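Hey everyone, long-time lurker, first post.

I ran two proteins through the pipeline my lab uses and got sequence/structure pairs for each. Pasting them in order. The first:
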Amino acid sequence: MPLPATTVERESSILARYAMHSADSRGRKHPEPEQSYRGPYQRDRDRIVHTSAFRRLSGKMQVFTGDMGDYHRTRLTHTHEVASIARTMGRALRLNEDLVEALALFHDIGHPPFGHAGEDALNECLQEEGGFSHNRHGLTIAEELEHPYPNFAGLNLTHEVLEMQQTRIRKGDPSSPLLEAQAVEAADSMTYDAHDCDDAIKLKLLTMEELAQTSLVGAAVAAVKERFANVTGDKLRRAIQRELLDRQVRDVLATAGQFLTTCEDATAEEVRQMAFRIGPSPELREQKQELERLLYSRVYRHPRLLEMRTGAQARIHQMFDGYLARPELLPPLYRQRAAKVGLKRAAGDYLAGMTDRYCDQQFGEHFATGSKPQNA
């Protein structure tokens, strides 16, 4: 069904030709009537936000666990920060903001409990079934596990949102993502670099002085102190986090803008096949790599986080084996799913959907030493 004139006219007036226009969408697997007040990518965004999987991101750790405090980012707050920055860049580059936002809100929806520790554990559990990837699980959520509509399974997202999620799975694949997806990838990187510094300082895993030894943070500290000579403490930390984001956004926009001015007559399909990718300049890329090496060695490998990682992975392995031995513990939806995809994959999907708290609760109730079998 054709798009309403309002959507077409609005996008024609504000989007560049190289943006992904809604009128060029390949549509949905299950055709649906279009709406006069929302374009297709707005509807995708809203469908993602209203899923139970999206809400559960509030209970899934980004880097730091809940017992370390309540200031630091969760998977949900990280997702919103990515969406905010990606929209800003999308608007500046005249991309389709609605598609950018949908992709940003969708990008981490498949993460299991306990961050990358949980993902690694599930990947080990499911090696014989093809492994586990949070990017692939995001597609499973969108196409199979969420079922809010009576006449089809899944969210029935547009082809473009599903295809861009596929490009996150197929690393090294020759197919290239749309510019909107490239903007989300860039926003994801700059977001976690900035907020992981902020969280690490707040949690006293690193000092500002240690972070300032890296060129990117050092330049941000110098810029803030030049503007605000007397700022200290939390105000200084927050000002530096904003400066870290601003420096990265300005760099990426300058780099991308310089290229995109040379291909204003290209379509979205044509420009995605070019060698250029939205991202930092070579200089900023080196600065980010230096900072990320420090974060990896001093924060992500911090003894407190390594202890959490070891414990979480052991619990997930034990729960996975426990569900295979006692499939009656799985909810009815996942017992039914086991008949379709196998018990191992169904148990992995159930574990992946858990929040950190619910995972610990289920472990304590059913699998911890001294727990009683169900119906005992």
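...and the second, right after it:
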Amino acid sequence: MYGHMGYGPFGGMGGFGWWDGIGFGLHGVGMLLFWGLLIWGAVVLYRHFFGRGKAEQGALAILMERYARGEVTQEQFTEMRKALR
């Protein structure tokens, strides 16, 4: 009667015996990885679309102000603008 009523390598009644505990543990790790990757991806997308653009616009605005005040020449302005893009 090997394999009946909870005996055997995979347990009885359709269960997998000690494999059930390992599966539950791996499920928890998988969920942590899933949520971690989801949050990380959201942060990366946010920084890509909202973070870097404002910094570049701010630097260009400062450069334009300096050019308007006469602190930089037209050649310097053109070179610096190319470097910012």
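Reply from user beta_strand_b:
Welcome! Quick read of the second one: The radius of gyration is 31 Å. The helical segments are 19-69, 74-84.
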